[in-house]
Specification:
CATH architecture of the largest domain in chain A: 3-Layer(aba) Sandwich
Number of helices of chain A: 14
Structural class of chain A: alpha/beta
CATH superfamily of the largest domain in chain B: Lrp/AsnC effector binding domain/regulation of amino acid metabolism (RAM) domain
Largest interface: A-B, 24 and 14 residues
Strand content of chain B: 15-25%
CATH architecture of the largest domain in chain B: 2-Layer Sandwich
CATH topology of the largest domain in chain A: Aspartate Aminotransferase, domain 2
CATH class of the largest domain in chain B: Alpha Beta
Shape of chain A: globular
Radius of gyration of chain A: 21 Å
Number of strands of chain B: 6
Strand order of the largest sheet of chain B: 2-3-1-4
Oligomer: heterodimer
Distance between the termini of chain B: 35 Å
Number of domains of chain A: 2
Order of helices and strands of chain A: HHHEHHEHEHEHEHEEEHHHEHEEEH
Helix content of chain A: 40-55%
CATH topology of the largest domain in chain B: Alpha-Beta Plaits
């Protein structure tokens, strides 16, 4: 008889299953549930990109690519980062194509953390950073971001958590689940704190193309003194609606990238070839599709924020990604109770805020990667639910 | 305010309040813009997208390609007007290429439409020839899918 519990990795067994999983499992057992839980675009990948993928298969491009990815694609990524965010990387040594942004996150954390190092993680945030950091035997240090600051990371909050053992700051903006965005002036403040330290920054910019209003996303790597300590992680999933293609990239200074490449080449070999060919097309010719999708998200964002505020679920106006993070404190319920009751009473699935870190308690995450008609129906049901409380 | 037109093109039942929220403008401005669109004839009407096949209405549609001979003082526009004035004509376009007017005609039955073509259209002096194509099935009309709605195929994933 195998005693699995004593045999398997203690580190892995200690990782708690995510709160989101539980809600999906309950929702899946019920009929007529309408979900606001999905964290991926509802759009299909633009046809030109899909076609490029099909063509690469027709031509028989079915081999591995170079470990770091197709040279052509790295070239396009380099050009894109320069033109869009004014950050330059050597195409041969400083850009690596990965299996989604997720792999890129894993690579950077593994490449820089020694056991006992402290990894700073602003919360609420994407659910993957903390478990991955734990697996490297890092000490995870959450930094609470607050609604009154627009869920931005402030210089003060950051400074308070820095110790001599701090190795890495995870910098997840535009933010999932809050929709918070760090504008240039906010980045300057953070840079001021980090400039004379030895702290690395993992800037997760997967939602960079999804910021609203007149200002575009600014990368922290473009702020003076930041490039040399920052690794930028991004990908094609959110901007080009390419989640299923599993394609991302990581760009950073050569000494870091040299180590990152080692992990990637032994663990993954290379990102999927078909996806890489498709991604070349995405960067070359699909800028307009990105703009159109962004405009559609913007309309939905305005609609859902207004609707929720009118229902008394106050949310600050999110400036990026495709989530709103309304406060449910006026109901007196905990995040999990709210979500569970809403699901059972009106069959609407939203995600409890505490799934994204303790500081998400009192909030829920609502995704607006759904049609307006779907959002209207959901709002109607939420309204009916609130009346019963 | 092209955004407004795009929104109305997809769903003309959105209220001015809803539209105002979506485009981030005051309701008064949206109302004024719509009035102006209507006054200028940019917005010509508001119609529901109905799938008549799902109703008991007997309804047959044909697409007719018409070649015409324009004459002095009686150009394409005049001929088109003669044709589109029939109630049976739902759409009427002037075309480039192998024929001149593309007309959609509806009736209760195939026979109905055939009679319309032979008795009303063909005898018009300027009409040189007609080619009638009956519609067998509509899949998509003005951007609206008439087939069953696609299911949301996205699966659960943690993020």
């Amino acid at each position: 008889m195998m005693d699995y519990d004593s045999l398997l990795s203690k580190k892995v067994m200690e990782i708690k299953p995510s709160g989101i999983r539980r809600f999906f499992d309950i929702a899946n057992e019920m009929d007529h549930v309408i979900s606001l839980g999905v964290g991926e675009p509802d759009f299909r990948t633009p046809w030109a990109i899909r076609h490029a993928g099909i063509q690469s298969l027709e031509k028989g491009h079915t081999w591995y690519t170079a470990n770091a990815g197709l040279a052509e694609l790295r070239g396009e990524i380099g050009k894109y980062l320069e033109e869009s965010f004014q950050i330059s990387y050597d195409r041969k040594q400083e850009i690596l194509v990965t299996v989604g942004g997720s792999e890129a996150i894993d690579l950077m954390i593994r490449a820089c953390v020694n056991p006992g190092d402290e990894v700073l993680i602003p919360e609420p945030c994407f659910v993957a950073y903390s478990p991955i950091a734990s697996l490297t035997n890092a000490t995870v240090v959450p930094i609470e971001t607050k609604a009154e600051d627009g869920f931005r990371l402030t210089a003060k909050a950051l400074r308070e958590k820095i110790t001599p053992r701090t190795k890495l700051l995870i910098f997840p903006f535009p933010n999932n689940p809050t929709g918070a965005v760090m504008r240039r002036e906010h980045l300057e403040e953070i840079a001021e704190v980090l400039r004379d330290t030895n702290i690395f920054v993992l800037s997760d910019e997967i939602y960079a193309e999804l910021t609203y209003g007149n200002q575009r996303h600014v990368s922290i790597a473009s702020i003076p003194g930041m490039w040399e300590r920052t690794v930028v992680v991004s990908g094609f999933s959110k901007a080009f609606a390419m989640t299923g293609w599993r394609l991302g990239y990581v760009a950073g200074p050569a000494p870091i990238m040299k180590q990152i490449l080692k992990i990637h080449q032994f663990a993954i070999m290379c990102a999927p070839t078909t996806s890489q060919h498709a991604a070349v097309e995405a960067l070359r010719s699909c800028g307009e599709d990105v703009v159109n999708m962004r405009e559609e998200y913007d309309i939905r964002r305005n609609f859902i924020v207004d609707g929720l505020n009118k229902l008394g679920l106050t949310c600050f106006h999110p400036e990026g990604a495709f989530y709103v993070f309304p406060s449910i404190q006026s109901t007196g319920l905990s995040s999990e109770d709210f979500c569970q009751k809403l699901l059972y009473a009106q069959r609407v699935a939203v995600v409890p805020g505490n799934s994204f870190g303790a500081s998400g308690e009192g909030f829920v995450r609502i995704s607006y990667s759904y049609s307006i008609e779907h959002l209207m129906e959901a709002l109607k049901r939420i309204e009916a639910f609130l009346k019963t409380l | 305010m092209d955004k407004l037109l795009n929104l109305l093109d997809k769903n003309c039942r959105l209220t001015n309040e809803q539209l105002a929220v979506m485009v981030g403008e005051p309701v008064s401005k949206v109302a004024a813009a719509i009035e102006e669109y209507e006054a200028k004839g940019i917005i010509r009407g508001y119609k529901a997208a109905i799938d008549w096949d799902k109703t008991s209405r007997e309804y047959v549609i044909a697409r007719i390609e018409i070649r015409v001979i324009p004459m002095r003082d009686h150009g394409f526009d005049e001929i088109a007007r003669t044709i589109y004035s029939f109630d049976e004509v739902e759409t009427c376009y002037l075309m480039s290429g192998g024929y001149d007017l593309a007309v959609t005609v509806s009736g209760k039955s195939f026979k109905d439409v055939a009679l319309f073509v032979s008795q009303k259209l063909a005898p018009i002096d300027a009409v040189q020839s007609t080619a009638t194509h009956f519609v067998l099935k509509k899949y998509k009309e003005r951007g609206v899918l008439l087939e069953e709605k696609e299911r949301d195929m996205r699966e659960d994933v943690l993020l």
